[in-house]
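ok here's TNFR-Cys domain-containing protein:
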Amino acid sequence: MARNMIFWLLLIIVTETRVARSREPPCLTKDICPSNMYCSEQADYSVKCYPCHSECEPSQGCDGPMSEQCRACKTGYTKQPGFSPCRASTCPVGTYGNQCQNQCHCHNNDLCVQGRCTGGHCERGRTGLPFCLE
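and the structure:
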């Protein structure tokens, strides 16, 4: 009798351990949330989507609520490599955007503020005010 109880107890423990280990966290298995939100698994194994930090680029998403967890910063903010927050840009004149990688295309090098040509004219061959990206 005692031997049977031990057998069944061990069988239950092994089975529960295998089930627990085989279950993938739902937030890691697929894109559950829209790109401007991150996935958070709740204690009851349900998931909730929460908004990314306001400094995150909405189309790139984030991995959590802090600006350090933005995958890319929105226009006007930059981020150092690694786990660092998005900060208001202080890009050199003529550049803007994430890591100041984007070039301004304003007529006669007019002032460019976060990618927008303040003079209202694009450089020759460019269209699409205020950013002159076309």
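+1. The beta strands are 37-41, 47-51, 77-78, 87-88, 95-96, 102-103, 112-113, 116-117.
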